[in-house]
Amino acid sequence: MTDTHQSCLPVGKMPELRVMPMPADANVHGDVFGGWIMAQVDIAGSLPAVRRANGRVATIAVNSFLFKQPVFVGDLLSFYAEVVKVGNTSITVNVEVYAERNRLQAETVKVTEATLTYVATDEQRKPRPIPPLSTLTGQPG
Ligand SMILES: CC(C)(COP(=O)(O)OP(=O)(O)OC[C@H]1O[C@@H](n2cnc3c(N)ncnc32)[C@H](O)[C@@H]1OP(=O)(O)O)[C@@H](O)C(=O)NCCC(=O)NCCS
How many domains does the structure of the chain reveal? Predict the structure, then answer.
């Protein structure tokens, strides 16, 4: 496991999502609910899955989820997501979440790591084969 504290965000990577939790996303102590973070991770992870599947996907499994550090109201969160496995109908994605705290002091902390599996689905919400990479032409919305 890598150190959770670092001075900057991962170099050379683009986050899928950047978002700042608000007071409604936290308990009375200002700690952000794990369920709120899980929802954002699911959204961030689905984005590369949708691109790779060239269409709709459904989350079938949350394989692992580690809340390594707390998240506070006002943290600027960046969600990095990467496809790590492509099966017949499924796509597994790693998601790493970094928080920029006290942004004027440039403190960056890795707060969450997760792995999720998505299944490519058709119009009837049934599994469909992942298309070969060579057939992908664009990036669906
Ligand atoms: C997604 C869904 C259409 C898949 O249908 P299914 O008949 O269960 O799918 P299958 O058993 O054929 O498995 C499909 C793929 O998922 C994988 N899979 C199944 N269970 C899994 C698990 N526990 N962990 C990881 N992958 C899993 C299978 O290995 C298969 O991958 P592959 O084709 O690449 O080998 C169906 O399960 C569903 O609709 N689930 C609800 C999805 C949803 O609503 N998610 C939002 C949260 S409620």
Answer: 1
